[in-house]
Amino acid sequence: MKNFKLVALAATLVLTVSCERETLTNPQETGNQEAFSLAADQCGAMDVLAQQIAADPSLIDRLNTVEAHTKEAIAQGKTARLAADGSIEIPVVFHVIYRTQSENIPLSQIQEQIAALNEDFNLDNPGRTTIPGEFQSVESNIGISFVLEQVIRTYDRRRSWRPDDSMKFVSPTVNPEQNLNIWVVNNMPYRGGNILGYAQFPGGDRATDGIVLDYRFTGNTQYSTGRTATHEVGHWLNLRHIWGDGGCGASDFVADTPDADGPSRGCPTYPTVSCGTNDMTMNFMDYSNDPCLNMFTNGQKSRMLSVFTAGGYREAMAQ
Ligand SMILES: [Zn+2]
Q1: pTM, 2 dp
Q2: If you measure from the C-alpha of residue 45 to the centroid of ligand 1, how many angstroms do you get, rounded to a whole number?
Q3: What's the CATH number for 6-318?
């Protein structure tokens, strides 16, 4: 794939956030819960990154530093310090911010989310049996395990949240150099729909480091099998969307993911073709429905693990 500079990325982001978005309709919730419609950009990570760059242009330098380190770590074959079983273990702090009791999700739902992350990062997700033959050779065992460290529950009267990190100051980040912080909130309306979650990329402010999820897309629910968190943790470990947030030729900085001209929706029937190749619609960094997201690649693994190597943004977590 093409080399891609983050300075160029910033320009792309400005264009991206100004694009008109369609709104998709999801099954509506009943009872006292609000109707839910899916924003075309169901993940807010790139928009939040654009907002953060606009507020602090020096973030581009820090992102470029992370990218330079990633490139060097991969080129030199640097490896992260691993646990005795060969894995990297990440403690997870959940911040549940709720207005109603249904939003104050039970511990069992949080544990389901942890289980889904552990499946997806360790080749243990049931859907992987459906991965097409041409992609099986690049499917990768990431070897990261997640352990529930703490659950912090906070009442807040707000009915919705903007994807602007405000929730992270209602329940502040806990030791972000050691922990993955996950905030669960009730609703994130955005650009005519709702986003399911967003993540902050390596290089960002430690005070806002982590991922944010809609409670309906956390663990197992009528909408979710927990793959929104897998996607957002991918961003949190420096993965980009598989279509490179642009058309054909826009890169996700990974060589073994095929070029794609945009996100997939629903549950595509293999094969779908764009940019002259079959799309890897089952990659966790696409927008397919949860049951149809089933794999990371070897190239994505190299990018993710590079942040844990010496000099990497998350080096302290692998020690
Ligand atoms: Zn995303």
Answers
A1: 0.90
A2: 5
A3: 3.40.390.10
